[in-house]
Design a protein that fits this description.
The structure is a homodimer of 272-residue chains.
Chain A lengths: L1 E3 L2 E2 L2 E3 L3 H5 L2 E9 L2 E2 L2 H14 L7 H14 L5 E8 L16 E8 L6 H5 L1 E5 L19 H7 L9 E5 L5 E4 L3 E6 L2 E5 L9 H12 L4 E4 L3 H5 L3 E6 L3 E8 L2 E2 L4 H13 L2
């Protein structure tokens, strides 16, 4: 089921600025246990992202009602809900007087089949050659300009490697193509800063919150490839996959360590 | 009139990767004097851009026929033709096996009203705060990830300033929000390199070709704001506006100089 501005419809105008310029933002939400997980956090980020891009989005109540409707329509136990908000339709040209009604699209999708052993044994990652641009104004925002991720994710098609690591133009590790990354060093948790490149993931914020509340030290900092290679534990996370321990990056092996296992368990309790 | 994959239609699926990720490219072509100007150059760049993004676009003959059809349908003397090619429809997720049919969209739009004095007296520009990211893989390509241009162009709404200048993250002048930029120093023409940021415009290539053939020295190089402020002449160009001499950038004034006037005249002869 797809709702566009409240109507069952799965097509948008070619004049929509989302298509023309990637002029919009999106959220990807897991539907599990009868609810859209961390919905408030996703909506808060969505509204905040609209503000940051000066998208004049006022239909927050309508959007909430439409997400409810989509959830009620779901037959499956698990699904993925995607919300996209664009600056709406416009003529040609980058300028917008923001008078157009933003386009809101809510769609449900099948939940991906994730092998169970990914969470118990960990996943194998690779390094991507495609870099992430540095742009302080756009960093952190889950906007629709995602060509870098597309190019990075299409560097490989080995189904045994479910994720790749992206670095910024200066060589610092930033995130996965679809996930955020954390490392453990001497029982402390670190994750890359995402104020110059990368996305501030909702699951990333959840992990930071859970760790902090559990007395695990968490810090955002620059993470080099060397620090990554020397880490005691590594994991990636996003709203759909939850947490995936990392068992290998290229030829370097990592254990599924204690802190990762603790966070996995704490997260699964949060989600209930 | 709009044609999507050959059919009169102005709506695309929300699953189109052009909307989801800005995963596509576009061309903006002036229709004047009964023809789509520099059509071959635009098509060459479009096909080349698809190759660079590994979009498996094979419908080149169909696209040519559809552009002809759009041109024949035009009642106006002047118009703008936009061609967009995306990687086609896909599920959720950045990965694509490139098996989907790319989406080709050809649309006609009204030609913008451009005051005549822009070409005779020049235009006033401003500097944008929004920077252009540095990304060697994407630089040069006219792809659909255009949020930086959107944010830059929306920094002002003074109708007497038709264009703004964008710099890269290192402070070098790269281009206008919708145009390329040239400067004249001691009768020689210079334009910023666009291999790390910016778009390699079709009109930019035309200007370089016309100048070179006319014995005017042209060089691509880094252009600092200081070099811009000390230039003898400045102009911007794109396929729709042609060449606009620059009369002022913020408070700095420039003459509409001899080389700019020569190129304006030479270009208008090319277009006939």
């Amino acid at each position: 089921m797809v709702l566009i501005n409240g109507k069952a419809n799965d097509k948008i105008s070619i004049l929509d600025r989302g298509l023309q310029y990637g002029d919009g933002v999106f959220e990807t939400i897991a539907y599990r246990n009868g609810k859209a997980e961390f919905l408030e956090q996703h909506l808060t980020r969505l509204f905040n992202s609209c503000d940051l891009l000066a998208i004049n989005f006022k239909q927050q109540n309508e959007l909430r009602a439409e997400v409810d409707l989509i959830c009620q329509s779901l037959q499956q136990e698990q699904a993925v809900i995607k919300i996209t908000v664009t600056r709406g339709e416009g003529g040609r040209g980058y300028f917008s007087d923001n008078s157009a009604l933003p386009t809101r699209i809510i769609s449900s999708h099948p939940h991906p089949d994730i092998p169970e052993h990914y969470q118990t044994d960990g996943v194998r990652l690779r390094f991507c050659e495609q870099t992430l641009s540095i742009n302080s104004r756009l960093a952190g925002i889950k906007h629709l300009n995602r060509l870098e991720q597309v190019l990075a994710r299409n560097e490989w098609d080995d189904i045994d490697i479910p994720e790749g690591i992206m670095s910024d133009e200066e060589g610092n590790v930033i995130e996965g193509t679809m996930s955020n990354i954390f490392i453990v060093e001497s029982d402390k948790l670190y994750t890359p800063v995402v104020t110059r490149a990368g996305i501030a993931g909702v699951m990333r914020a959840q992990v930071i919150q859970i760790a902090t509340r559990s007395g695990i030290s968490v810090q955002e900092r620059e993470i080099t490839k060397k620090a990554l290679s020397e880490a005691d534990e590594v994991f990636v996370c996003n709203s759909v996959i939850g947490i995936w321990p990392v068992s290998a990056i290229s030829n370097k092996l990592y254990p599924v360590g204690f802190i990762t296992q603790f966070l996995l368990k704490a997260l699964s309790e949060c989600e209930k």
